[in-house]
Specification:
alpha+beta, Arc Repressor Mutant, subunit A, 4-stranded antiparallel β-sheet, Transcrip_reg_TACO1-like, 237 residues, transcription regulation, Alpha-Beta Plaits
Length: 237
């Protein structure tokens, strides 16, 4: 198996477990998708993907419809996606993806978490190069051969395809998202969920005590409502 498989295995069950946090994220994704491409999912591939993800976290349909309606209101603020970079203790690189309607608030909060947890905020581009920006799709297995599917999807940008207990996962570079989404839809394959991840190129092994120091910062960041994802170069236990 490749790096995407190991990365997914290491993060499984550790992140994004709180239902309230998942719903908050979906709500922001809906607003950004609608503001970008309109409220019709048939004509808005980004919104279509978000609705698929809402089903994956069991978000009620009425919540989704309400969020779409709210997003069409001119008075509803749009969210700006902002990436923060820095270092946790023990030389662990940290990438923080946020979606915010108040950048000053988010900058101040993220900086305070780094400072309180003995980390250091970095400048733009200081650690982003250490991660591969990828997209992913989950589809039902339905008896399909992952290796055969991988060969068929290589021309559309797929780099790694593997099966776990929840279906088949397809990983590709960030820029291949639209191409693969379209091909899966053309094949009539159900997309259970999709998204983007940043996979560390190299990870660093820490002691349990050192890991606890890094986890303290990660947890602080993930508790913030503006934070969507936190990625790091610490080797998962």
């Amino acid at each position: 198996m490749g790096r995407a498989f190991e990365f997914r295995k290491g993060r499984k069950m550790k992140r994004w477990s709180a239902m309230a946090k998942a719903f908050t994220r979906i709500g922001k994704d809906i607003v950004m998708a609608v503001k970008e491409g309109g409220p019709n999912p048939d004509a808005n591939s980004r919104l279509r993907a978000v609705i698929q993800n809402s089903k994956a976290v069991n978000m009620p349909k009425e919540n989704v419809e309400r969020a779409i309606k709210k997003a069409t209101d001119k008075d509803t603020a749009n969210y700006k996606e902002v990436l923060f970079e820095g270092y946790a203790p023990h030389g662990i690189a940290i990438l923080v993806e946020t979606a915010t309607d108040n950048n000053n608030r988010t900058v101040a909060n993220v900086r305070s978490y780094f400072n309180k947890c003995n980390g250091t905020m970095g400048t733009q581009g200081s650690v982003e190069f250490m991660f591969d920006h990828t997209c992913n799709f989950r589809i039902p297995a339905n008896g399909m051969d992952p290796e055969e599917l991988e060969l068929e999807l290589i021309d559309f940008g797929a780099e790694e395809v593997f099966e776990d207990e929840d279906g088949i996962l397809i990983y590709a570079p960030f820029g291949s998202f639209g191409t693969i989404q379209k091909e899966l839809e053309n094949r009539g394959l159900e997309i259970l969920s999709s998204g983007f991840e940043r996979i560390p190129q190299i990870t660093k092994k820490l002691t349990e005590i050192e890991m606890a120091d890094v986890e303290k910062l990660i947890e602080k960041l993930e508790e913030d409502d503006d934070v969507m994802n936190v990625y790091h170069t610490m080797e998962e236990a």
